[in-house]
Design a protein that fits this description.
The structure is a homodimer of 399-residue chains.
Chain A lengths: L7 E7 L2 H8 L6 E7 L2 E10 L9 E2 L2 H4 L2 H10 L4 E6 L9 H20 L3 E3 L9 E2 L1 E5 L9 H13 L3 E6 L14 H9 L3 E4 L18 H21 L2 H4 L4 E4 L6 H13 L20 E3 L5 H12 L17 H11 L3 E2 L17 H11 L6 H15 L4
Parallel strand pairs in A: 1-5, 5-8, 8-9, 9-10, 10-11, 11-12, 12-13
Antiparallel strand pairs in A: 2-3, 3-4, 6-7
Chain lengths: 399, 399
C-alpha cells in the first residue's frame, strides 16, 4: 500500500485571530499597529513589528495571509500544496508572563485544532484507500517562558497529544530563559518523546544586532544569517548537552534546513575532538547526530539541499566519537549518501513570510524551494516524492 | 610549462617573537602568562589568553609551535608541506592604540619578511626549471584599528607590496571599528587591489557569548560556530556594501571555507530579492559573488568541500540579480560545477591551533583536511593538485 503523491508543506505559519488580537492590544513589540501608508496619508495599513527597532517599521500584515483560513487554503491551492502542517509564527508566547503564556497556549492549541479539524477532507493518502486526511494539521504551543511551571508545560504536552489534528509543537530557542540545553527541560523532552510529537525548532532572536554594523540593509542580515545562526547554536547546544543521546526517539525538525549545522558539522566534530572539556562527553561523533534529526527543505537552492542530504546520509559512518572524515571518492557514492539523507528532509514554504515585492500569481519563495527539490543531483523521482510529501506523512503520522 | 605537485598551506599562523613579547608584557587579554601546571605545582607553563574569561584559562602556548621558525619548518616537513603562507594569528593589532598599531605593524611586517626570506629554498616550482621559491611566504598586517590614520594604512600597504616575500594581508573583521563595510575603507580596498595583494579574511571575535548559555562547553561553541559566523557576517556585509562590485579585481580569501556563506548563499539571495531596501542595490545575485572569492579548504569533511566547490562553480549562472535557482538535475552536471569551483579553493591547516590532545606524529587537523580534499566526489587528480598547491602558486603569485 503506497502513499499518493502529495505536496505537504511542513513550514507554514499562522497568527491565529486570538493571537493577532493580543498583538494589536500591545504598545511594545511584538505588536500589530496601524499607520498611514507612506505617500498616501488617507490610507491606513497594518504593520507587524516583531522586534523593537526593526527597519522599515516592521512589515505589512493583513488577514489575507496571516490569520484567515480560507486564504491559507487559497494559497495552498494556487501552489498545488495538498496538506499544510501549520504552526504559530514567532515570537509565540515568549513575551508573556508565565500564567498568561500557560492559559493562552491552551486556548491557541484549541483554536489551532479547530482551524485544522474544520479544514476540507483530502481523501485517503494511500493509493489502496483508507480513512481520509485533512488539508490542515497543526503544531501546538508550549508555555515555555521564564518562570514557567514545569507541570503546566507537561500538562500542555498532554493536551496537544489529545488533540487529533496537532502533530507536534513549534519551539523557539529560549526554553525557560536559559536555552534548550537547560537540564530542567529533560522531563519536557521525555514527555514529548513518549507522546511521539515532532518538535519544530524555529528561530526568532537571531544573534545580537551589534554584529551587523550601522549600514542600512533592511531585514537581510538578521533573516538571512541571524535566523539560521540561532537555530545552529540551539541544536548544537542540545547535542553538546547530550539530549539526543538521552532521548534517542525524540523527533526534532530544524527550520531552514538546519541553518549552518550541516556546513559546520565536521568543524564541530573537529573542535569537540580537540577540546578536553567536551571530548569524552558524547556517545557519537558530532556528524552522527545529523542522522537523528529532520530538516525542512527551505534552503532555496539544489546544491544546498543536496549537501544537507549528503551530511545526513553520511551520519551512520560517524558512530564512533573520534571518527575521522570518511573517504567518499566518487559521485556515485555521494549519490548514495544523498538517497539516504533524503528520507529526513521535508518540503516547506515559510509562508506567509517572504511575500513577493510585486503582485504575482505564485510566490517565488515557494517555486524556488520546489524547483530546488526537483533539481538536486542524485535525487530521483522516489526521493523527490518523499521530500515533497511522503516523509511528512510518515514523520507526522498522517497515514 | 606546468607546475610541480606541491603542498602549499595557506592558513598557518605565527606569533612572531616581537609580538609574543608584547603579549607577555600585558596584564589583560590578549596576553601570555605563566602558571603552574594543574596537579604539578613545581612546573610552570605558558598560557595564551586571547579573550578575557576564556574557559580553561586560555590554551597552552610555547615557542615550539608559536614563534620558532625551525619548528614551523619541522611541522611542515612532518606533514609533507612544501610551502607555507604564514600569517600572524588573531587578535593581530586590534587591541592597540592607533600609533602603536602603526609602528608595530611596520616592524612585524619587516620581521615576517625576514622570517620568510631566510627560509630554505625549495627549488623551482615549475617542471621546466626557473627561479627557486622559498619554503615560507607571508601575509602582512595593516594597522586597521579605531582612530587609525588612513594615510598610515595606505603607507603600510605600500610597505607590504615592497617586501618580496609578503603576498597579501591577513585582516580581521573590525576595520576602523565600524566593520569592513565602512565607506571610509574604500581607498584601502582600492590600494590592495591595485597592488595585487590577497586579503585573508579571518575571524577573531565570533558573536557575543551571551548566545552560548551557561553550560561548560570549553572552546567548542565560539570556535566551531562563532568563528565561521563572524566571517560569514563580515563577507556578507562587504557584498551588501557593493565592495565586490566596486573592486572587481580585489582578491579575498575566506578562512574556514567561507564559514556558513556557501550554505546560506541561496537564502541570502532570496532575502535580498524580497527586501526593498537592498533588492535594487547590487549588480548581481548574491550567489554570483562566491565566484569572485577564494576559500581555504579548512572544513574537515569531503562533503563540505564538495559543496563549497559546487557553490563557487554555480556562481556564473547567477549573474542576474533576481536569478532563480538553476536546474542541475544530474550528478554529472554537479560534478562539472565542482571542477569549476576547485580553482578557488586552497589547502590549509590552521596550525598551530587544534593541537592534538595526545602526543602523535601527525596532527589530525592536518591529516583530516588533506584526506577530505582527496575524497571530494567529483574532484580528480587535477583538481586535487590544484587545491593542494597549484591554486596557491597562482593566486599568491609565487610562480
Amino acid at each position: 500500500m503506497s502513499t499518493r503523491k502529495l505536496l505537504v508543506d511542513v513550514h507554514t505559519h499562522v497568527y491565529l485571530p486570538r493571537y493577532a488580537a493580543y498583538l494589536r492590544a500591545r504598545a511594545v513589540a511584538p505588536r500589530i499597529f496601524s499607520r498611514p501608508v507612506p505617500g498616501e496619508p488617507d490610507v491606513e495599513e497594518d504593520r507587524l513589528l516583531i522586534l523593537e527597532n526593526e527597519p522599515s517599521g516592521g512589515r505589512p500584515v493583513g488577514p489575507q495571509v496571516y490569520w484567515d483560513k480560507s486564504q491559507k487554503l487559497a494559497f495552498m491551492n494556487r501552489h498545488g500544496i495538498d496538506v499544510s502542517v501549520v504552526s504559530s509564527a514567532n515570537p509565540w508566547l515568549d513575551f508573556l508572563p508565565a500564567s498568561e503564556a500557560n492559559s493562552l497556549a491552551k486556548e491557541l492549541n484549541e483554536d489551532l485544532e479547530e482551524f485544522c479539524s474544520s479544514s476540507p477532507d483530502l481523501g485517503s493518502p494511500t493509493s489502496g484507500g483508507g480513512p481520509s486526511i485533512k488539508r490542515l494539521y497543526g503544531l501546538g504551543l508550549l508555555p515555555l517562558v521564564s518562570e514557567a511551571s514545569l507541570s503546566d508545560v507537561l500538562k500542555v504536552i498532554t493536551q496537544i497529544s489529545s488533540l487529533p489534528h496537532l502533530k507536534g509543537v513549534i519551539m523557539g530557542t529560549q526554553g525557560l530563559g536559559r536555552g534548550l540545553d537547560d537540564e530542567e527541560l529533560e522531563p519536557v523532552w521525555g514527555e514529548i518523546e513518549r507522546n511521539g510529537l515532532v518538535v519544530f525548532l524555529h528561530p526568532h532572536y537571531g544573534v545580537p544586532s551589534s554584529v551587523y554594523g550601522g549600514r542600512a540593509n533592511g531585514h537581510v542580515l538578521p533573516l538571512a544569517l541571524g535566523f539560521p545562526f540561532e537555530t545552529t547554536i540551539a541544536i548544537t547546544r542540545l547535542i553538546l548537552a547530550g539530549v539526543l543521546d538521552k532521548f534517542p526517539s525524540l523527533k526534532i525538525m530544524l527550520a531552514h534546513s538546519g541553518g549552518a549545522l550541516p556546513a559546520l558539522s565536521s568543524r564541530l566534530a573537529s573542535c569537540i575532538d580537540h577540546d578536553p572539556v567536551v571530548a569524552s562527553r558524547l556517545k557519537h561523533n558530532a556528524r552522527y547526530y545529523l542522522g537523528r534529526l529532520y530538516f525542512d527543505a527551505v534552503a532555496y537552492g539544489p546544491e544546498e539541499l543536496g549537501f544537507v542530504s549528503s551530511a545526513i546520509g553520511r551520519s551512520s559512518t560517524y558512530d564512533d566519537p573520534s571518527a575521522s572524515a570518511s573517504a567518499i571518492p566518487s559521485l556515485e557514492s555521494e549519490g548514495k549518501l544523498r538517497v539516504l539523507g533524503s528520507s529526513r528532509m521535508l518540503f516547506g514554504t515559510d509562508h506567509p513570510f517572504f511575500p513577493p515585492l510585486k503582485a504575482t500569481d505564485k510566490w517565488k519563495s515557494v517555486t524556488e524551494n520546489l524547483a530546488a527539490i526537483n533539481a538536486v543531483a542524485g535525487w530521483g523521482d522516489e526521493e523527490i516524492e518523499a521530500v515533497c510529501g511522503g516523509n511528512a506523512l510518515r514523520i507526522f503520522d498522517l497515514v
